[in-house]
Amino acid sequence: MIDLPTLERTMEELGQPSYRARQVYEALTKRLATSFADMSELPRSLREELAARLRPCLLEEVETRESPRGSAVKALLRAADGEPVEAVLMTHRRRVTVCVSTQVGCAVRCAFCASGSAGLRRSLSAEEIVDQVLGFMRRAQAQERRVTNVVFMGMGEPFHNYEETLRACRLLNDPGGVGLAARSISVSTAGVVPGIDRLAREALQVNLAVSLHAATDELRSRLVPLNRTYPLATLFAACARYVGRTRRKLMFEYVVLSGVNDTGEQVEGLVRLLKRPLYHLNLIAYNETGGEFARPSLRELTALRAALERRGLSCTVRESPGSEIDAACGQLALPRAGAQ
Ligand code: SAH
């Protein structure tokens, strides 16, 4: 992916008319072209000059894995500097969702998530984030389907890479380019308060999700170390500002860890924190990442949901497909040393 300003600058340097920039931009984002050689609308000499200067695709596909019933596909990609990037495609009835990574690794190190286990290696550029989506758009197109949603819920903490995350959202939303509706784009944060405040001020209607996972500071600091920097009171003050300013729904994600955060104390805390208009809770059964935690049984999960609903919370259980291929929530990780 190459953004329009870069293409305009390049055309100017090459002494080309500026409409050529838009031609290339549309070929990349609408026709999903992967090389300049494919752009027969351009003179051959220009195609060659562009190929010598710019890379239309920043991520190379190393491998894709598909879950047995085809509901999830995980792509292992490689950036130009060799860093591994993972993205997931999920199909559920009419909804075709791409889950993108915003970083290679993650600095947050949540206790139950594999993404942070090797720390942060680097942040991805907006172009590298958008290329994850374009790759899956090509795959969907070949099956006569269309990507309908993008979630920033892969590896990394989007608000530790705020500028590029927002630039990626704008590129995806650009009606002259990829053209996805802002409302079909969701960004998820582990609770980086300055990012929540910044997003509230952007003129961009993307959805926000906050990964909560515990309703007391004691437990949350253990599960999400970022809670020591932005404890619940600080986090929820920002959430209230966000909803007050945007009037948009705010989603809270809660990975259910059997016997750890599904206790009566946590239920009480959740009711206290979340019983507000526009707040919605999404429960996710913990996916195995090889740690100390256990996945709740369907009965435990249903009981928790019922207990929360009885107390008046708006609450759903999120499907997290792809665990058979290590593509489910929390399972995206850097390859172990020597594993590749
Ligand atoms: N760093 C951001 C973006 C990643 S979103 C954030 O934390 O929100 C990935 C979602 O999957 C988060 O809600 C995360 O908490 C959840 N998750 C992480 N590990 C998981 C696991 N082992 N099982 C189920 N969900 C998990």
Secondary-structure map with pairings?
Elements: H1 4-13, H2 19-29, H3 44-53, E1 59-66, E2 72-79, E3 84-92, E4 95-99, E5 103-105, E6 120-123, H4 126-142, E7 149-152, H5 162-173, E8 185-189, H6 193-201, E9 207-211, H7 217-223, H8 232-246, E10 250-256, H9 264-274, E11 279-285, H10 298-310, E12 315-318
Parallel strand pairs: 4-7, 7-8, 8-9, 9-10, 10-11, 11-12
Antiparallel strand pairs: 1-2, 2-3, 3-4, 5-6
Bound molecules: S-adenosyl-L-homocysteine (SAH).
Structure description:
The chain is about 35% helix and about 20% strand. The strands form 2 sheets. Strands 1-2-3-4-7-8-9-10-11-12 form a 10-stranded mixed beta sheet, with helices on one face. The chain has about 350 residues and is an alpha/beta fold. The protein folds into 2 domains: about 5-55, DNA polymerase, domain 1; about 60-325, Aldolase class I (TIM Barrel, Alpha-Beta Barrel). Helix 6 links the parallel strand 8 (about 185-190) and strand 9 (about 205-210). It contains 10 helices and 12 strands.
